[in-house]
Amino acid sequence: MFRKYMRPTKTMASQLKRRPQQTPALSTPLFARLEENLSAIKQTLGNPQDLIVRPFTIDNASQACAVVCIDGLVDSDLINDKVVKHIQLMLPASGKTLPPPGEEMLTFLLNEVLSTIEVKRETTFEAMYDRVLAGDTALFVDGAAQTILIDSRGWETRSIDEPVSEGLVRGPREGFTENIRDNTMLVRRRVRDCQLRFDTMTVGRRSKTDLIIAYMQDIAHPAIVQEVKRRLATIDVDEVEESGFIEQWIEDDFLSPFPQCQVTERPDKVASALFQGRVAILLDGSPMGLIVPVTLSVMLHSPEDFYERWIVGTLARMLRYIAAFLAVFSPALYVALVTYHPGLIPSDLAFSIAATREGVPFPAFVEALLMVATMELLQEAGLRLPKPIGQTVGIVGGLVIGESAVSAGLVSPVMVIVVALTAIASFAIPAYNLALTFRMIRFGVMFAAAVFGLYGVVLTFIAIFIHLANLTSLGVPYLTPFAPQLLHDWKDLVLRAPVTFMRKRPETAQPTDDTRMKTGDAP
Amino acid sequence: MADRRFVRTALIGLCAFLTAGCWDQVQIEERGFVIGVAIDFPRSTAAEEKADREAPDKPEGRRRFLVTHQFVVPGGLVSGAQERGIQNSANQAFLNLASEGDSLLEISSELATRSSRIPFYQHLKVVIISEAVARSNYAFADALDFFLRDPELRRSSKVMIAKGDARPVLEISPRNEKLPAMYINSVAENIRKTARMVPEVRLGEVHENLVNELSFALPRITSNENEVKVAGAAVFHGQSNRLVGFLGEEETEGLNFLTDRVKGGMLKTAVGRDLVTFNVQTASRDIRADIRHKERMRFVYTITCEGVIDESFKRLNYLNENATKTLQDNVAKEIERLARDTIRKVHKQMKTDVLGLGSHLKQKHPHLWKQIKYDWDHGRNYFASSDIDVKANVFIRNVGEVNMTETRDRLEVR
């Protein structure tokens, strides 16, 4: 049943054929002489200001050494305390007999002197550059065609903050940061299970960004994990700035307006997705994790549905499904009813709408377009500006433009209400990317309403759902559990059943271990 | 190649949108919402003579109608419309346009030449027909044909019969409402408080009755300058589809009890010389028919009525069961009196079955009905030769919040 959903797209397959895997193009061995190594490094990197090359000698100047690192990326205290100080001060004081210079000295230093946890030997320039540019320190010993790479990453990072785009009243206040180590830490703290897998990849031919595929070995369906890895392996770009690049490379249908990855900066969301057998993708430098596969219903759910009691959660969910409908269809319904079907509006309302539209120079569609477009402008402008000014824009735009547009007779007050309702409804969608989609579709539906009335609204409604029924996210149908009807999953859909009812994991992602509760198995 | 095909498909699609779309787009403020229509016969023949002089050969109807349309003027509905620069000198929320002609569609299209807004009938609330039109042969059905046939019109508009002319009913200026037709529409829905009006009859129901040749009653409406009164009933004969007469307010109350349409209202009864007023909450009726002889059928109505005592000028001790029982009997007698008055009028004088006996027979005794349906309240008129009796049972469910307003009883002046 599952294999049917796993249908690699034509473009994916051709990409796979065309491109070789990311292997280092060349591997230049390190020189044995220290001087040559150092000058080669300086030349390759262009001897930048932040390159630190610190030569020193040990064993009464018989052995020349040097540390190479990038200023700012390394924790200089660590290099001072654990490397240079150990070698220069404590080694002579210990009274150990030193081996002859060259490779033996290097091994001796590696095994007996250096007291940091992550240490590695490398023999090529490329491997050395990769690590040094990522914040490691290279220790060269004259006479050895090798280098010791010491993990000394210690750049300034942002502290763990509250997730800005997904605030909650109840629930953890931690959000992902740009540092992937922090992010894996945040996830692992929530999932203390040996089956948690963090598979590492590097993406970006030049940016060489770290990427982590997180999943539960015994829950996630192997086909999904494999497919995620296959698609990630096809990525062939210079640089990857944000997880959005990844999302666009691995999505099933790049023509669809609907997002096919869930984007979150909440580690608790990632953890709960892992327990449902889904796969998370974390990218270094991006505080936004991706979760695949995703369904439409998941995007309308919020973690708070589970943190609050089930009645509250259920009500909030119903509200959000209604909000999703309103966010897309309410301006269109207004246009259709006002221009084509005033008979469907209750009499008194029809008269008062007619009264408020008296003197409005535009047809309802233009009026709606004007207001919705203004709304979009305001939203966009508010995003660009710093927070305090952004609020001012909201007030200026919302109150002043709305009020004066009405009193100038450009739009009717009912239209302002409809637009405000639409905007609020789209803010109620927990997934920002889905809300963006809705904002986009809204215009299409409005156009159909202006041309064909309610008939057009119904047509676009059907068209949207035909598309949704056809869409997949990593092979999982987008409307699951509605359209491939998985009745077990309906417990956690529009209704959010009490947690004690959910003995099985959702079937949507086809988990290999589907039991949540061991006791009292449900029939 | 593929590109050209795409462009061609897109062009065809666009044409479909641009040529077929926006077909009947009319902005809401450009529609003239017709909320009430009054149908009269014209008072003078001047217009008709003029038309005859101009075009003597054109097809003509048997009779001409004077139709008054009530349009909503939305600007007048908004308080403070003047400040917002919307001009409306009279600040009236409605506009009545009257026009004369022999076809209602002709009149409707003639209005489009005089009004800035196209008549739009989907919000039509009331159709008021004058007594003269209703009494005239065929004119009643003729007048309604346009309203039933045109798809834009709804079958849910209420139909009422004006005592006298219909046009003045729409020309009142109600004090607490801005739109006369909406005001009439609301008044006609107050059947929970009174049984003296016929519950709303919709255009669709009138049509059913016209087609089925059943007699029916429509609400009667009267008006003066500022208000209307919806009370009483206009009785239509099922075969001729003509108005045969009006029932008064109390007779309408009796009719409502007999046709099981009482939703509320009150009944006065005298205990000694003092009034006790009974508030009706529910009422139902049951018909028993003795159909052994077609010529002398016998029908017995049993009316069961429940309610509360809401006003009592007689200081009765309602905690006493006997007092309540006596009162129940008194109220029952009052119901019987109302019903008998009504029966006397419609059965003996009008000989028109608005009591629903015909449809009772149709439902319960279809074989018999097939034989007699052409001789029911016309022809041999089995209805008129039948015998109708009424019995009423009353249950007082509650005697009010207090037992007695004062303990002292009234001194009887002998």
Automatic annotation (TrEMBL), chain A:
Family from the record: Belongs to the GerABKA family.
One annotated GO biological process: spore germination
Entry protein name: Spore germination protein
Record-annotated membrane-spanning stretches: 319-340, 414-435, 447-469
GO-annotated cellular components: membrane
Transmembrane is among the record's keywords: yes
Xref: Pfam families: GerA
Species, as recorded: Brevibacillus thermoruber
The keyword Membrane belongs to this UniProt entry's keyword annotation: yes
Region listing for Disordered, in residue ranges: 1-23
Family matches, as InterPro entries: Spore_Ger, UPF0353/GerABKA_families
Keyword terms of this UniProt record: Membrane, Transmembrane, Transmembrane helix
Record lineage: Bacteria, Bacillati, Bacillota, Bacilli, Bacillales
UniProtKB/TrEMBL annotation, chain B:
Cross-referenced InterPro entries: GerAC_N, Spore_GerAC-like, Spore_GerAC-like_C, Spore_GerAC_C_sf
Entry membrane topology: Lipid-anchor
One GO BP: spore germination
Compartment(s): Membrane
Gene3D superfamilies given in the database record: Nutrient germinant receptor protein C, domain 3
Spore germination GerAC-like C-terminal domain boundaries: 232-400
Keyword Signal among record annotations: yes
Keyword terms of this UniProt record: Germination, Lipoprotein, Membrane, Palmitate, Signal
A Pfam family annotated for this UniProt entry: Spore_GerAC_N
Residue ranges occupied by any Spore germination protein N-terminal domain in the UniProt entry: 24-222
Family: Belongs to the GerABKC lipoprotein family.
GO cellular component, one term: membrane
Protein name according to UniProt: Ger(X)C family spore germination protein
PROSITE patterns listed in its UniProt record: PROKAR_LIPOPROTEIN (PS51257)
Keyword Membrane: yes
Source organism, top-level taxon: Bacteria
